[in-house]
Amino acid sequence: MKSVKYFIFILIAFTTTQAYSQSNKKKSGQYVISISPGMAYGEASNEYTAASFYGPHLNFCIRKRVIKLSKNYNFSSELHLGSQFAFLENDKKLYGYRVGQLVFNFNALAGSYPPNKKNPISFPIGFFIGPGIYLLNGGYNTADIGPLFNLGFRFKMSKTYFFDLRFFGAFTVFGETAIGGASLQFPIMLRKTSGGK
User: Fold this and answer.
1) 57: β partners
2) Distance from CA of residue 28 to its chain's centroid?
3) CA gap 171, 43 in Å, rounded
4) DSSP SS3 for 92
5) How would residue 29 be classed by pLDDT, with cut points 50, 70 and 90?
């Protein structure tokens, strides 16, 4: 089972880092910066004990287009950085973790590009899906990494604004922590270009 986890992790790590490096080669491009509050639940275990945890998280996300398919479809790289707060079962203390996520997504329809008043996407709902890498640091002075998968929907509120409903699941390779959650992503900065070009 461990060898399968390592293979999945290496495959996803290669895909996402390649996409991220491609995005950095371009000096300009469309990007969105978002703030993302949400909730998550997880199971952490080691050779001595296991524990369930749950709590809120808050992330900042930057999404940048890396491959353009058409006006309504593209691939993007996303970097999420923030904190995961956790209550352990049968423990009243609140623990904090630093969390990072590097994701490679396919985006479609509404919100796939930063909006433009002259040529807005008429369909009110879009979606995204893709793999990524999950990084966890904190708690009992531990750091861990593993594969992630996320998907979600984008809802257009006006010609120039939308928000995301995002679901994700991940597990870490070394500490054997599984975590899943949901969040709302609200854009706080949209870089706009003409007609999504």
Assistant:
1) 38, 84
2) 22
3) 9
4) coil
5) low
